[in-house]
Amino acid sequence: SSHLAQGFLGFLLGGSKSSVSMAAVVVAQRLQEQNEEENKRALEKREKSFEELFTQLDVSQTKTLNREEVKVLVTDLNQGIEPMPEELTFVMRIASGGVDRDMTKKELHTAIAAWKSYRSSFEDEHSMGRKLFDKHDVNKSGKLEREEIKELLKDLNLNNDVDEQDLDYVFKNADLLSTGAITKIELSQVVAIWFEIQQEKRKSSSAEMSPETSKSCSIL
User: From the centroid of its chain, how far is CA 2?
Assistant: First the structure.
């Protein structure tokens, strides 16, 4: 193999420019194929592990996970500590798109990601989620009311006022537990929905700019 490598190296160094370029293209293609194959194997391994995990959790063998089975999952992710009822409800609802029902195999990924995101956001007193929540939980109720969410969004909006319609949309869609307030576990939803709104506004603004306007701007 060493002789083959040396021969190939000699070909690269001693060949014409066109042959060197050709060899470089071949090497690049082979590297890309190897990367794609490795990514494929990694994905298959991950899917297999999720398949095994789901089968292990599905004690009732219904091909879905009920509340007690999801509780076992979250407890395991939480280092043996059982989740609070509202935390468990949140995980199940965010995985199912806000619907109260058992969890399917496809939703297992979302459930695990949601829980890990929540825990990392409130891991300690220096975590961003905890700092943001505590800052705006003015009455220290452990929940954020509408006006407190308004101030939080204003904070995210570089201290600019927040449109009331945007506030209503964020509040309504982030309140997955239907408590009329935002709990700690729902904070990530608030932030995600807010930035989603801003992204949509930027897209709309770009789409509304006509070719004539773009041309005028480039001239100026």
Answer: 46
Please give the full DSSP string across 91-148, using - where no structure is assigned: HHHHHTTS--SPBPGGGHHHHHHHHHHHHHHTSSTTSHHHHHHHHH-TT-SSSB-HHH
Residue 169 has pLDDT above 60, yes or no: yes
Residue 217 pLDDT = 47
What does the pLDDT look like over 115-151, one tens digit per residue?
A: 999 999 988 888 999 999 999 999 999 999 999 999 9
Query: Which tokens sit at 217?
Result: 């701007």
Q: 186-211, pLDDT tens digit by residue?
A: 999 999 999 999 999 988 888 776 55
Residues in the chain: 220
Amino acid identity, residue 60?
Answer: S
d(CA 28, CA 12): 14
Instruction: List Cβ<8 Å contacts ≥24 apart for 91-96.
Output: 91/115, 92/67, 93/176, 93/177, 94/176, 94/189
